[in-house]
Write a structure and sequence with these properties.
Length: 435
């Protein structure tokens, strides 16, 4: 047997079971620690507000209901952003249990006892994210108008994605002055300066190739990459009218085939399926009453990953899913979000797409057609990669999306998280059938 060949199925299953048994105690400790950190965020807010010079609210204010964003890195920290009540002195507060040593960031310790040191929580006034120094500039209407306005009027500036301490995306809409009103939209991607430089290099690498990517706009600003808006609608929207029956799945493999060989020189990034245990912990924190079920599914996923063929390394997108693919008239017009572009595996890109298509119906009836699209796309994708690897890695992707349900807020998120767990089960059964 060569190093590239998959081993016998029972070998992978035994390894996975041993891994689960050995890691259960450690995983439980991490999950318990994450649960304490999650509870520490709102508990620390009053003292953080005081230390940041704000006025502590004395009435009732449901911080859980007013949580706007959350970013969970199991075992590494939890970050979130909260809407503040009127009179606080600022509108939004960012908080994190990650260690932050930057001037202007407040910190406090909660849940400390004689036997336990408690949890340290740091806080900052949004948009002054301590790890994203350019976010305040990107959120400044006057700065955006002056920098990218081109004599037009900035009519809207909206944050459409934000992972505290990691990255943000803002959409800026400009409108021509005068009687004829023509709108123009650009996107501002904000990240740590080195990450934005790397993203810019990736865009330049694909410029002039058959892969359609949005052009980068000048001027260059440290920590901000300005991009023209792509033409078209997301794949999820394109699927809705006819359940994807008017789309050719081969167009998506052809798009990946067009990634140039120079991509192989970039720094590789882990695929979603490379961090299955970490996302198991995040899913368990979201659904603690399903801990045993989640652990059992994770073990089965790992068994399939160990026993299936991943294929050869090729140029890969790294985050190939519906929101990052735009279409117009059934044809692909833009490939977005090149942050993870680099050496990877075709099966992981295809599994990323299938995993996201599988969970789309959990976001509402308007996406029910994605189930039919999943079958049509899978029938084509299975011809080019190991089907067992494809479905196992699709299940791993769906597992990563359970914890993200918290971002929906309210009571709905729990129903969505439960529905996504059922999707993971269905995808694991598909992998089982291939074994």
């Amino acid at each position: 047997m060569t190093a590239g060949e998959p081993g016998p199925a029972h070998t992978g299953a035994d390894a996975a079971r041993n891994s689960v048994a050995a890691g259960s105690a450690d995983a439980a400790r991490i999950i318990d620690a994450d649960a304490r950190e999650f509870a520490a965020l709102p508990a620390a807010i009053p003292e953080l507000v005081r230390r940041l010079g704000g006025r502590v609210h004395t009435g009732t204010w449901d911080y859980e209901a007013n949580r706007l964003r959350i970013q969970h890195r199991p075992g590494a920290g939890i970050s979130a952003m909260y809407r503040m009540p009127a009179g606080t002195g600022f509108n939004e507060l960012g908080v994190s249990t990650e260690a932050i040593r930057v001037p202007g960031v407040a910190a406090t310790r909660v849940f400390a006892t004689n036997d336990a040191p408690g949890v340290v929580v740091s806080g900052w006034i949004h948009p002054h994210d301590p790890k994203l120094p350019a976010l305040a500039l990107a959120a400044d209407r006057a700065f955006v108008q002056e920098t990218w306005g081109d004599a037009e009027l900035l009519t809207r500036l909206k944050t459409i994605a934000y992972r505290p301490l990691r990255r943000a995306v803002l959409r800026a809409t400009f409108t021509t002055r005068g009687p004829l009103r023509i709108a123009r939209t650009i996107y501002l991607k904000v990240g740590r300066p080195q990450s934005i430089e790397a993203l810019n290099r990736r865009h330049q690498l694909l410029a002039g190739t058959p892969v359609p990517v949005p052009p980068v706009l000048e001027p260059a600003i440290a920590g901000i990459l300005a991009l023209e808006a792509g033409n078209g609608e997301s794949l999820s929207a394109a699927i809705r009218p006819r359940s994807g029956a008017d789309l050719d799945p081969r167009d998506f493999t052809t798009l990946l085939d067009a990634l140039p060989g120079s991509v192989m020189a970039l720094k590789p990034r882990d695929a979603w399926s490379d961090s299955t245990r970490r996302y198991q912990q995040a899913a368990t924190l979201a659904l603690p009453h399903r801990a045993g079920r989640i652990e059992e599914l994770t073990g089965r996923i790992e068994a399939h990953l160990a026993a299936s063929d991943r294929g050869d390394k090729v140029p890969a997108h790294g985050d190939f899913y519906d929101a990052n693919i735009l279409l117009d008239g059934g044809k692909i017009t833009a490939l977005l979000d090149l942050d993870s572009l680099g050496p990877g595996y075709r099966v992981d890109d295809l599994a990323c797409l299938l995993g996201h298509l599988a969970i789309l119906p959990t976001l509402g009836e308007k996406n029910d057609g994605a189930a039919g699209a999943l079958e049509r796309f899978a029938a084509v994708f299975e011809r080019g990669v190991d089907p067992r690897a494809l479905w196992a890695r699709s299940a791993a992707v769906a597992l990563t999306l359970i914890a993200g349900s918290r971002g929906l807020g309210g009571e709905r998120w729990l129903q969505v998280a439960e529905a996504r767990l059922r999707v993971v089960e269905a995808l694991v059964r598909r992998a089982d059938s291939c074994a």
